[in-house]
Amino acid sequence: MSGEALAGPGGYGIDDSILQAFAREISEVHSLGGEIAVVIGGGNIFRGMSGATLGIERATADYMGMLATIMNSLALQAAIERTGVQTRVLSALEMKEVAEPYIRRRATRHLEKKRIVIFAAGTGNPFFTTDTAASLRAVEIGADVLIKATKVDGVYEADPVLHPDAKRYTELTYLDVLSQKLKVMDSTAISLCMDNQLPVLVFNMLVPGNLRRVMVGEDIGTIVRGGAP
User: Fold this and answer.
1) pLDDT score of 229
2) Of the candidates 143, 164, 179, which is a domain's last residue?
3) 121 lies in the same domain as 148
4) Which of 58, 78, 174, 200 shows its CA 20 to 30 Å from the CA of 221?
5) How far apart are CA 195 and CA 184, in angstroms?
6) pLDDT tens digits, 63-117
7) Which of 193, 58, 81 is nearest to 138 (CA)?
8) Where does a domain end: 143, 159, 178?
């Protein structure tokens, strides 16, 4: 889940109505019986790449971005737990006062106990995106699918805002994404998914009910996986 999605029309910070809506949708899907882990970005507060353009050393800027993801994770945890669902935040940066340290077996144990797990602080290393962190954590816990919640309803051949007639893809292969340089995820994240045959589903999280539609198999968004589309 992108951090920017939490900002709402204000473009910065956390919009409480959007936060609560996301929490309700995640809790509703959890009630269907699935195991859910969430990776959330921090772009609504601070982006490492943006910080680097301000003259902050890239590694330092990336660590600042990781701290922003922890803030978002704690906010999402509080919102989800208000719906009555147990949630755990596991951070790749050690911050024991507010989150558990990330340990893969601990994460899978929480999932087995039907808790929603939120992975914070990316991979814990600079120069890696939230997309790569999501791909890595999904592979580590043996996820069936990586769902990328965005502000658009799938992957397009061109920016649909600038090109209203742009075609939306319903299905793509990993190689399609890499060869056409489609803006699904960065190449490191897509390559990791391809190497481990982890499907990626891209959809619009801002449409109420879309997360549930995805989980019950409705044909929305764009699926990226191996083989010919």
Assistant:
1) 42
2) 143
3) no
4) 78
5) 16
6) 999 999 999 999 999 999 999 999 999 999 999 999 999 999 999 999 999 999 9
7) 193
8) 143
pLDDT of residue 228: 45
Domains contained in the chain, number: 2
Q: Write phi, then psi, for 172 (nearest 5 degrees).
A: -140, 160
- Give the CA angle between residues 133, 172, 38 to the nearest 5°: 25
Tell me, what CATH number does 219's domain have?
A: 3.40.1160.10
The first and second tokens of residue 121, run together, are 């602080």
Are 49 and 61 contacting, i.e. CB atoms less than 8 angstroms apart? yes
| Residue 134 shares a structural domain with residue 166 | no
